[in-house]
Amino acid sequence: MEGRLGESMRVDHDHYLVTQVDACVERICDLGCTVVYQVIALMEQGKCAREITGLTCVDRRKVLKELKEIMSVYDARAKGPSCKVKRAENSV
């Protein structure tokens, strides 16, 4: 993020402008890509991972969309993702 005169700015994650969806996505991503893939798999099966408990259905869909977009970067690698999980049963 660029500030005035090209200086770099860091957004405080506790800042009130961070949405609940953004905060949830960040918390899940902080757990590592294996957990992210597990959460995505559970959500696609219509199940609820504890990381999304308390979110509305609309916000859950937003979290899933955001996680998929983030992980698509890893999926697009020539060798594919290095941490893809085989089974969602090992869920968080």
Explained architecture:
By secondary structure, the chain is mostly helical. It has 3 helices and no strands. The radius of gyration is 15 Å and the shape is globular.
Helix residue percentage? 40-55%
- Residue ranges: pLDDT <50 for 5 or more in a row? 1-11, 87-92
Shape: globular
N-to-C CA distance: 32 Å
Number of DSSP-assigned strands: 0
Structural class based on helices, strands and sheet pairing = mainly alpha
Q: Please state the CA-atom Rg, rounded to the nearest Å.
A: 15 Å
- What pattern of helices and strands is seen along the backbone? HHH
Strand content: under 5%
Counting DSSP H or I runs of 4 or more residues, the number of helices is: 3
Main beta sheet strand tally, sense and closure: none
Q: Overall mean pLDDT score?
A: 77
Strand and helix layout:
Layout (H helix, E strand, L loop, with lengths): L19 H11 L2 H12 L12 H19 L17
Structure keywords:
mainly alpha; disordered C terminus; 3 helices; globular; 46% helix; disordered N terminus; 0% strand; 92 residues
In short:
The protein is mainly α and 92 residues long. It is 46% helix and 0% strand.
